[in-house]
């Protein structure tokens, strides 16, 4: 049966509920520009009604706050993280491929194609004037430019591949740090959730921000359990399980780059796309450098060395009394190619003649003609064709990576717009709520005043009648 102060208690519940709703609104407004913040709502529901004997129906007892709800769509979160991982992979790959394009420097006078053409032209000049010491020095300088360009390209590509390894090690430390922070938040969230009705909304927002950052580094799988703790896995290996996080490291071994999570190795060298994110992009870039660009550059340099040395050995130097077979280039690949020290020390030993006669330039002419020989790709391509194929493939792959990265970023923006519609704070809506809760609070206060006046009449005037 309702007590004497039942009406005041009902009004008090209303005051408290509206005040809490105003506090939640204030929290939303204050965090409207905070990254990762999810809009909250104080959910109101009718308090348990009471029955009075002899009276029909039930007597309502006011309102209570059942929970402070957090607006979040886990499906949209998963979509954003998947696309963020894909974007991280292609953006990393695109940056690396653009850098490789700048190495080859095709539009510059210092590009490999240009220095090779200058070298072939200098050999043609030598064939026309084999007795000129000045032209011989020009040929040697052009040959040194070719060798130096090959070595420089090889160094740049190797440095970029090693830089990818360094990035992986840095990202490994970042993954481990984020894993520890998520595990710590899991523990705090579970502690809050142990109290009935508590939701740990702000802690969950912090955790979701970390998961978003994690997905840009590597593709993740995240699932929340019944205690609101999230389990995070990378390529099937658990990074975070409840309040425990695993160690993360990258190492280079015979099988390639090994990712170790909690002591279990993942060798993603064959399928770096499994890992996604910046990690997958760095692994894929390293694989392309070593298996494609560096390998093709070495093949080009090795074939150039072999073809030129074969012809040069058949020729005579300017002052040779008898035939001496000499190499024009030393080395085996792009990283070791160099002009022979003997030729550099004595330009007269540069072979131009096929007979030993000083005016004979047939060997120089034959070397100059090698640029037309199909010496690459199993006898199907010239040196220039092979280099054009290499740089053309590089341009296509860089353009493709850029297109995929741009598409992923567009998708991310679109999905984030949908996510903002769910979890974002609308100041107009919050202002309307503020006015609504303020009026409700005022009405509850007036209700208490009314009941107070009734009680005053009851207490002060009862029993005074007839005096």
Structure description:
This protein has 467 residues and is of the alpha+beta class. It has two domains: 6-71 and 441-461, no CATH class; 78-414, no CATH class. The protein has helices at 6-30, 74-104, 112-128, 133-193, 201-217, 277-313, 341-345, 362-368, 383-423, 427-461, and strands spanning 40-46, 50-51, 58-59, 63-70, 221-224, 230-234, 237-241, 244-245, 248-253, 256-261, 264-266, 329-330, 338-339. A four-stranded antiparallel beta sheet has the order 5-6-7-8, covered by helices on one side. Strands 9-10-11 form a three-stranded antiparallel beta sheet, with helices on one face. The longest helix has 61 residues, at 133-193. The radius of gyration is 39 Å and the shape is rod-shaped.
Count of strand segments: 13
Gross morphology is rod-shaped
The span between the termini is: 33 Å
Largest beta sheet, briefly? 4 strands, antiparallel
User: How are the strands of the biggest sheet laid out side by side?
Assistant: 5-6-7-8
Ranges where pLDDT stays below 50 over 5 or more residues in a row are: none
Strand content range: 5-15%
Structural class of the secondary structure composition?
A: alpha+beta
Q: Give the averaged pLDDT, no decimals.
A: 90
User: Total domains, how many?
Assistant: 2
Helix proportion of residues, in percent?
A: 55-70%
Counting DSSP H or I runs of 4 or more residues, the number of helices is 10
Oligomer: single chain
Q: Radius of gyration, Cα only, in angstroms?
A: 39 Å
Question: Would you list the SSEs in sequence order as H and E?
Answer: HEEEEHHHHEEEEEEEHEEHHHH
